[in-house]
Amino acid sequence: MDKYDHPGACTGILITPRAVLTAAHCVSGDVKSVIVVFDLKIGEARKVPVTRTVIHPDYVDEEDKFNVGDIAIVFIAAHQYPTVIIPFDHDVTFTDGQQFVFAGYGRAVSNRSRSTGVLRKASIAASGYDTPREVALKPLMDAWPCDGDSGGPILRKDMSGRYALTGIMNAVSAGPVGECLFQNSFMTPLHSYSDWIASTLASGG
User: Is the residue at 92 inside a domain?
Assistant: First the structure.
């Protein structure tokens, strides 16, 4: 994307073959262009143009803070790339220590902005603090979301080993020298936005 005249990257997940779920702060404000890339590494190949972007009406674009409604759907043009749609999670519990998997194109090295752009996954846990609009997260081991992971999927694995889409990455905390911090990262739980997601998909792209 090109936002505020600076190129950048966020993560999203397909919820239909032509609709990408991501964070609203990735596509709001002074955004010049957004392109969706189907690849393990962000580059010039496998790009698909965007046809329409819908941001949740509750979202207010304020930097450096958690914002409710930080969710958007990006509709894309028809394409030939294979797609796998992960079902939504129907479990709405987020107890302290409950583990999830997140995926994103965020920094591999916390203080190197140019280390973004390669898809990675890691485990993360709920902190025990949650509201209908946010779930606070805490690290497991030394993996932690960073710039570029915003909008990325957060998945829950059931006892049979199948994944379900629980939420998307919202706020990612950065320190005074641009390093990502092990604090203040949040999930936007999708069960609270299921009606909006359904109506937006019904309206089409």
Answer: no
Among 36, 74, 68, smallest CA distance to 171 is for 68
Give me 127's structure tokens. Answer: 């902190």
Range of the domain at 178: 99-191
Mean pLDDT for each consecutive 10-residue tract of the chain (205 residues)? 55 93 85 72 79 92 75 92 92 92 76 67 87 85 76 90 93 58 78 95 87
Angstrom distance (rounded) from CA 25 to CA 150: 8
The pTM assigned to this predicted structure is 0.86
Could you list the beta-strand ranges (E) of 17-162.
19-22, 31-33, 35-37, 47-55, 72-76, 99-104, 120-130, 135-139, 153-157
60 and 143 assigned to the same domain: no
- Please report, for the domain that includes residue 181, its CATH number: 2.40.10.10
| Rounded Cα gap, residues 36 and 21, in angstroms | 11
